[in-house]
Amino acid sequence: MSAHRIPLAGVIGAPVAHSRSPRLFAHWLETLGIEGHYAPLHVEPDDFEQVVRALPRMGFRGANVTLPHKIAALGIADQVSDRAARIGAANTLTFRDDGIHADNTDGHGFISNLRQSAPGWAAADGPAVVLGAGGAARAVLDALIEAGAPEIRLANRTRARAEALAEAFGPAIRVIDWAETAPALDGAATVVNTTSLGMQGADPFDLDLSALPASALATDIVYTPLDTPMLIAARDRGCRTVDGLGMLLHQAVPGFARWFGATPQVTEATRAAVLG
Ligand code: ATR
Question: What keywords sit in the KW lines (predicted)?
C-alpha cells in the first residue's frame, strides 16, 4: 500500500449490480472534494478470499461486503471487532498494515439513523418489539442491547430461530410466538421490522398494529418501497416512523471515514443522491 496512490474501496457481493453504495460513496467523495474511487465488485463465493487478499496490492483501503459474503468475511479476517464477533458477520473490511480488520456497522447504522431521524428517541425509552430473526435482526438486536433497551420482544415465524438469538444475545430478549405478535406491541416504545414482509416482490405485511401505543417509534429495515405498509400503518396509529434508507447510509459512514480520511454527513442531499 503506497501513500501516493488514489485511494480505492468497493462493495463485494454476488449479485452487486443493484447496490446503492457506489452512488453513495461517489456522492460523498464529490461533496468532500476527495480524490478516490469506489467500485461494485461482483465476486462469487469460491473466489472471495483470493480476491479480497489481492485488493490491498491494487490500492484498495477496504471494502464493504454484502450477500452472500458477510459470514465468510469474518472468517478471513486477522482482527475482528467485538460487535462483528457478537453478530457473527462482517460488512466492513479495512486493510491495515497488520492484516484484514473486520467490522459490522449495520447496528451502528440502525441506531444512528433513529437518533438522527427521530430526535429525542432513545433505546432506553422502553420495550422494543423486533420482528424477524435473520441476519439483519442480529445486528439490530446487538445495537438495541448496546444502546440500553430494557427489554426486547422478539417474534419470528420460525420460533426456533428467535430462540437461538435469545440464547446468543442474553436475558434482555423475550421470545414471542409469531401468533402473539399483535398483543405484544402493547406498551412498546420501539417496533422494528427486520423481516422481508412488505418488501416489493415479497409477502405482504399484514400484522395488526392496533395495540401499538401512539408514543412508539416504528422503523423498517425494508426500504423498497421507502414508505412501507408497516410504516403507513404505524403512522395511522399516530406513531413517529423512520424509513430504512437511513440505516443503509449511516452504516457506510465508518468505512468511508477509515478509507478516505473524512467523516461524511447523512443529509437530505445524500438521500436524494442515492435515490437518484
Ligand atoms: P436477512 O438476513 O436479510 O434478515 P433472512 O435471513 O432471509 O434475511 O430473514 C428473513 C426474515 O423474514 C426471517 O425472519 C423470516 O422468517 P423465518 O425465519 O420464519 O423464515 C422472515 N419472513 C420472510 N417471509 C415471511 C413471511 N411470509 N411471514 C413471516 N416472516 C417471514
Answer: Amino-acid biosynthesis, Aromatic amino acid biosynthesis, NADP, Oxidoreductase
Q: Are residues 126 and 227 in the same domain?
A: yes
What CATH number is associated with residue 195? 3.40.50.720
The number of the ligand 1 atom at minimal distance from the alpha carbon of 137 is 4
Residues marked active site are found at 70
Is the Cβ atom of 203 under 6 angstroms away from ligand 1? Answer: yes
Sheet containing 152-156: order of strands: 173-177, 152-156, 128-131, 190-193, 217-220, 240-242
ipTM of the complex model: 0.96
In this predicted model, what pLDDT tens digit does every residue of 223-250 receive, in sequence order?
Answer: 999 999 999 999 999 999 999 999 999 9
Q: What does residue 253 show for φ and ψ, rounded to 5 degrees?
A: -60, -50
Q: Is pLDDT above 90 for 184?
A: yes
Same domain, yes or no: 130 and 228: yes
93-131 per-position pLDDT tens digit: 999 999 999 999 999 999 999 999 999 999 999 999 999
Domain shared by 84 and 140, yes or no: no
